[in-house]
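Board notes, transcribed. Complex of a protein with adenosine-5'-diphosphate.
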Amino acid sequence: MDFSKFNKIIEGKTKVIYENPNDPDTVFMLFKDDITAGDGVKHDILEGKAQVDWQTNRDIFEYLNRCGVRTHYVSSPEDKVSIVKKLERKINLEVVSRRVAAGSILKWGTGAAEGDRYEPVITQFHYKDDPLHDPMLDDTYIEYMIAAKNSIEYSEARRINAEVFQHLERAFAAFGVQLIDFKLEYGMIKGEVVLIDEITGGSFRLWPFKTDKPNMNQANVLSELDPAGRLDKDVYRMGGDLGAVRDKFGAIAAITARFKELDV
Ligand SMILES: Nc1ncnc2c1ncn2[C@@H]1O[C@H](COP(=O)(O)OP(=O)(O)O)[C@@H](O)[C@H]1O
Ligand SMILES: [Mg+2]
C-alpha cells in the first residue's frame, strides 16, 4: 500500500495511524523500525523490528479475538500493516498487570523480591504521559472513580487486563516461557472499553522456564525461571546490542506464530 496518499491521523514512537478512505470505522496501523525505552529517552532504529512486531502483534491479537476478548484488532492485510477499529476516545492510561515481581516494582522499597509470585495478578494504572514518566495512580482514586463516578474506563480496563493476562500466560506457558508482567492500553469504541494499541516484545517481560515442569505454586518462583534467558525489551533497556535485541524479538515472534495451534 502507498500511504503517501492517505491522511495521517497520528504518529507515535513505534507506529503511524492513517485514515482508511474506504471505511470510516477503521484505521490503518503501520509499524515502524523504531525502538525506545525510558519514555523515549533511549531511541534506536532496529531494521526489521516493524516486521517482527507486526507479526507478534497479529498473532497475539488473533489469539485474543479467538478467546473472545474485546479488542480493536481486525486484520493484517500486508506486511507491517494492520487494520484496527477506529478509536472514538483515547484513555490515557497504561494498565500494568504483574504475575511475578520484576523491574520497577523492586525499586519501590515495598519489600518485593525478584520472583515473588502474585495470585491473583496485581493490576496498576499509570497515567500515560512521557514527560511525567507515567506516574502510578492511587488505588483509592481508582475505587472512587468506579464507585462514585461509575467510571467503566477503570473497572473494565482492570477486568480485561486480568482476563488477557490469563489467556497470554497460558499461551506462552504452552511454549515453555512465563509471562512475568505486561502493559496494555485501552480506548473507547462505540461506547465500550476496548483493548487497543499493540502487544509486542516491548509490552511484556518473558522469562523461560528452567525445567519442563516448573513448580509455579510457590511464594517466590525465581528458582523455576531463567531471567538471564529473557526474551523481551529488558535486553535493550539493559544496554544489550541491537543484534541481540533483534534475536530476542525474533524468538518471541517464533513462539506467537504457534498460538494458532492452541485451543481456546
Ligand atoms: N484503534 C486505534 N485507533 C486510533 N488510534 C490508535 C488506535 N490504537 C492505537 N492508536 C494510537 O496510535 C498512536 C501511535 O502509537 P505508538 O507509536 O505506540 O504511540 P506512543 O508513542 O504514544 O506509544 C497512539 O497515539 C495510540 O493511541
Ligand atoms: Mg506505544
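The longest strand covers residues 177-189. DSSP finds five helices and 13 strands in the chain.
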